[in-house]
Amino acid sequence: MGTIGIRGLGKVYPGGTRALRDLDLEIADGEFMVFVGPSGCGKTTALRMIAGLETIEEGEISIGGTVVNRVEPRKRDVAMVFQNYALYPHMSVYDNIAFPLQCEGRRKQEIKERVEEAARLLGLDELLKRKPRALSGGQRQRVAMGRAIVRKPQAFLLDEPLSNLDAKLRMQMRAELSTVQRTLGVTTVYVTHDQVEAMTMGTRIAVMRDGLLQQEGTPELVYGR
Ligand code: ADP
Ligand code: ADP
């Protein structure tokens, strides 16, 4: 299933910056793992390496038991959501969410069922005909998540997805996202610099500093609550 194994992972960027050093982490199927730490500690680098967006020269990553070091991003069965969700402005919400399935050449009826299922889960049922410009920031972020989950990937990767939202909406979206993750049971890796976010959302937390894994455990263990 959607386990993620990270063994001895390191990263030195061209130019010589060391972003990661000897990272070891096993992420269980269905777990909500948060990478937390100050800016520049290597969180995004680790996530991008899982996604296949950075090459792996040191160590190994496996997804669902298969080593993916040399597997290209679109064959990794992961979906990534960024801070700046790039929706297609000329397409409706329905078509934005449907797009990955259309690319896979799925049948119309299957696409319709899966888009409607994702929309229901994210509370977008009433908005399927709208264009992105007619949506609020939170609604747009939900569409971006819909587009990510509609393929039912083995892993869901999120990089500071809520940081462009105002504080109130951010709190609401945290709760929603946790619910969606639990409902889907999809293995999730979530990057944030926000400790409160890490604590309220993660089932497990990896605290990073200067490219090193400093501490790892449940929120209770890491933050002593
Ligand atoms: P975080 O997500 O925790 O803010 P990053 O993984 O983005 O940290 O960055 C870790 C380190 O690697 C930082 O020193 C950053 O400046 C550097 N870095 C990130 N991306 C690149 C890149 N494409 N080229 C060179 N250095 C990079
Ligand atoms: P048909 O081929 O019978 O016309 P499709 O299901 O292929 O219908 O949908 C055609 C287009 O209609 C889609 O690309 C989408 O833009 C829109 N659409 C389909 N179902 C919905 C829905 N539940 N809500 C909003 N738009 C929809």
From TrEMBL:
ABC transporter domain sequence ranges: 4-225
Gene Ontology cellular component terms for the protein in this record: ATP-binding cassette (ABC) transporter complex, substrate-binding subunit-containing
Coiled-coil stretches: none
Source organism of the structure: Actinomadura syzygii
Annotated GO biological process: carbohydrate transport
Alphabetic keyword roster: ATP-binding, Cell membrane, Membrane, Nucleotide-binding, Translocase, Transport
Protein name: sn-glycerol-3-phosphate ABC transporter ATP-binding protein UgpC
Gene name, Swiss-Prot/TrEMBL: ugpC
Gene Ontology MF term list: ABC-type transporter activity; ATP binding; ATP hydrolysis activity
